[in-house]
Amino acid sequence: MTSIQPGGSLLTRRRRLLGPSLSLSYREPLHIVRGEGAYLYDADGRQYLDCVNNVAHVGHAHPRVVEAGIAQMRLLNTNTRYLHETVVAYAERLTALLPGHLEVAYFTNSGSEANELALRLARTATGRPDVATVDVAYHGNTQRLVEISPYKFNGPGGAGRRDDVQVVPLPDPYRGRHRGAGAGVAEAYLSESRAVLDERAAAGHAAGAVIAEAIPSVAGQIVPPPGWLAGLFDAGRAHGAVPIADEVQVGFGRVGADMWAFGAQGARPDIVTMGKPIGNGHPLGAVVTTRAIADAFANGMEYFNTFGGNPVSAAIGLAVLGVIADEGLQEHARVTGARLLGGLRELQADHVSIGDVRGVGLFVGFELVRDRATRDPHAALASELVNRAAARGVLLSTDGPDHNVIKIKPPMVFSGGDADRLVETVDAVLTELRSSQEQAGTALGDSRGGRIDSMS
Amino acid sequence: MTSIQPGGSLLTRRRRLLGPSLSLSYREPLHIVRGEGAYLYDADGRQYLDCVNNVAHVGHAHPRVVEAGIAQMRLLNTNTRYLHETVVAYAERLTALLPGHLEVAYFTNSGSEANELALRLARTATGRPDVATVDVAYHGNTQRLVEISPYKFNGPGGAGRRDDVQVVPLPDPYRGRHRGAGAGVAEAYLSESRAVLDERAAAGHAAGAVIAEAIPSVAGQIVPPPGWLAGLFDAGRAHGAVPIADEVQVGFGRVGADMWAFGAQGARPDIVTMGKPIGNGHPLGAVVTTRAIADAFANGMEYFNTFGGNPVSAAIGLAVLGVIADEGLQEHARVTGARLLGGLRELQADHVSIGDVRGVGLFVGFELVRDRATRDPHAALASELVNRAAARGVLLSTDGPDHNVIKIKPPMVFSGGDADRLVETVDAVLTELRSSQEQAGTALGDSRGGRIDSMS
Hints:
By secondary structure, chain A is of the alpha/beta class. Chain A contains 14 helices and 18 strands. The first copy, chain A, folds into two domains: about 20-50 and about 330-440, CATH 3.90.1150.10; about 65-325, CATH 3.40.640.10.
């Protein structure tokens, strides 16, 4: 796990040099040196099945993506103040994947930069700074994005909700106020959401934007009831708010049924933001919006992004889109995701600690609970499962406000066999833990091991 | 300049697909397809001497930097939740270039992300949101960074100064209220700056941060009087504000006399931000701060940056530092910059339109004026010079609030011969323009040609 170097072990040097706000995954941190497809390899050559890195969307070190980057790096990497074919070709191909009214692209270097720009676009178009956001959401690491991320501002070190931020309820069918898949569940959440928006509008603070993920991720892989996102965007539109779909975690075919998670929900955003998987690890983000919003934003203040839309980033983004199409990864995600969900649901029959299994395509989660009736979250078990699975060569992570959701969002090349191995490993670890608890006559305590965070 | 493609020319397609807030350089936009060293090449094979892209710090497509990126891209590109040698080695090498109290590094994907994080660090450490900034400064493209950038909030489309932003005067020895290089000039600006900070502190709004570039760039390559930055930081410290040196434009040896522009000014920041040249075009930024500030920021809220500090970015950043050292680029910038400044100052004798020549190392500017006595800015001449120089194969840009400053910040491999060619081209174009005006009996009007912006 560590290398002997002047100045101490790799872990010691890292702790001395890198900001302490940055966490490492797993009780025994991994020293990963190579990746290929859905697999990572540590310094000792040990192989790990990667079930968490949605950033490596088309597979770690995908040769076609790597070669596209290499060819362009050797030629030219410069900014968008000159004409370049690749950035235009990329914008053409990307916008062609979206509904026709989403036709103008901006390129950034991260999902955070994309969400920042989306908020600026909406604010300039509406003249209103207020943003409506979903409870427990996370949208990025800038000042303003932390301010609209309840996951952050209500969490440790958070400053609470600002007056210009409106929080609508998280539509959680398992743990929320309104539960199940019934026709009235979406409407029950939407009714409460409209009340929040209406009240602030009546007070003279109508939202200028409503931002949401179609499948809230850090909230614990929540699959909202059908119609929720479309209804939420309608509620915002009623007050003139620009609907923003944050596809940073869930875009690019991961949900299987559609290229975009908002599409799978039947919603119609006026701004879509992208990040993480868009460049298969290369720092890249994008915002696509309507002509009207783009024109309103062109108010004389230039938006320039030094690296955004450079030829290397564009070549890499274009290659990722090519691989998704040519390798049929969207359909693969649908099929493999269904197999994975099926396997996890079978496990539920054997393990009472699995309270809920949910997901769409290759964006999947399951909740660990102390008691199926009370749904009491079991964070300690989740942490223990993740650490023991890592020791068995299967990389998972936890998420959700109670840290009890196992989050699964592998590279899209994750195979059916990989899904089976993941299910078998969860089965084996939960069986092992149950057996050791039964022998000891105690339940796992609540002390958590190495922190496993979420937003990777 | 354009390629025939389905859907129209490259320029037409770009205008249809990319956000209209993004400008192109030059009246006849360039279609650049290749770069090497200090040179760019267009689609017709025409060579241009690049005098403006400080991002391509060690030269366009530098083989060592490209190969470092390639080798790592082929192996692995993932996040900082695993141990990796390269990011730690990079942090070691980068912090070793800074004063000893600056010892903790954070990696981002751009200078904007770096400045955002710097403000969040200062705000968390002090508990105070107010930021003191220098007039006409630009610090990045996020909501908060636009709010602290007078260049933006006082410019077209700007919303004006917010109450939590304090603006101190730009120490412009040529055009400001206090002029020249006398010993009292810095103190005159500092006295006014202290008055701003003191007044806000007395009103209960003491600044939590004071941010400045040691050589204000978009303000027009302003070289402040000696001692100014150290004095400004002291003025902030008197109120407990964290001093932030924004080295995004001017760092990494460009000023010649020192690796950092703040060092050349004898200032002592507690946070330093970096971007643009740091990755030679690769999306990369960094923040380095003190242990105390880093510890205060670790208040329970994680700072995670999906792409920040990934092994590819770190390998590229490390290679850039290696090239700067091994090719002696800091000393080269000092020598070549002096030659360039000397040449431009000689031109001043022949061309009354050159009102001022200034710079440090390879960060140089000169002002075009209608009248040396009144210093009336001549934006039309600046624009004409830049466009005609481009037609002669020499790329320049304009900057400054009056758009009359010619900004020069070439790749650091820019040679003495390149400097001579730049001077000769400026001489030839100004001579040509003077002669055509004399023949026509008119002065250039004020209509500007293709917009040449600044922040590239």
